Amino acid sequence: xxxxxxxLEDVIAGLSRPQKALPPKYFYxxxxxxxxxxxxxxxxxxxxxxxxxxxxxxxxxxxRFAGRGCALIEYGSGESLKTRLLIRALRPAAYLPxxxxxxxxxxAALKLERAFPWLEIVPVNGDFSRPLALPxxxxxxxxxxxxxxxxxxxxTPGEAHAFLRMTRGQVGPKGAMxxxxxxxxxxxxxxxxxxxxxxxxxxxxxxLLGRINRELxxxxxxxxxxxxxxxxxxxxxxxxxxxxxEAQIVNVGNYRFAFARGETIHTENSYKYSVEEFxxxxxxxxxxxxxxxxxRKGLFALHGLKAA
Length: 308
Ligand code: AVJ
Prior knowledge:
The chain is an alpha/beta fold.
């Protein structure tokens, strides 16, 4: 069984729940990855710029914290500028990018090979929402897990706890972790970041239905759906949904799903954590938060965690 049956199963299961839902990891097909890169350059989407700025400004301290010559493991690597900064400063013994998209992984690995011919690159095609076994490290290099971009915000606090426990096991007692976390802030700023004026985030969200049509032969009519994103303050998260503009029936393979007017498919959570909240979460997973780097506006945090 390849990836397609799993995609189909996940879609059928998600659309069969009382609150219909789809896993956000499926946003990132070729079209979705392109749209996400456009999101990262939007004026309203401060996340990428804030993280890049704080990484640039603190790269020396970050490298000292992680230690030179480590095995650097990056989850959800995609194609990242921050990674290049880090590789240059850290001079890792090996770099293990982990990504759900095989083409994105291969493209990124090729580019990095060209830029850093001295670096051993071991791409791992994997989905980190499930437990993942990493290739055994060569030598005794200390392992450092890098999880930037606030991707951890896609996980519920329970899932984030399980993920941090898994990476705590992977880095071992001497290891460290760098986690990029989006901070709680003015809800207007958050709202604008997920409701950009150019409609790129809307296109990104709607592309999920397009992908289901393309890959699973479904018949979602994209004109009958609207992007809907809001900040859920009590839960501390942005929620993205796709709202059905009218009562309709959609076929996915042999399955039929009925949608009421205004009913939504929940497509993504993006949790925001205060510094204290994230430290508490890391502590429960067996990490001590030793370092904290932030951008000047206090929009985004990079936490340096050591095994407790
Ligand atoms: C890549 C998961 C961090 O939650 O901000 C951007 C994805 N969704 N705009 C985020 C996203 C809508 C992004 N993460």
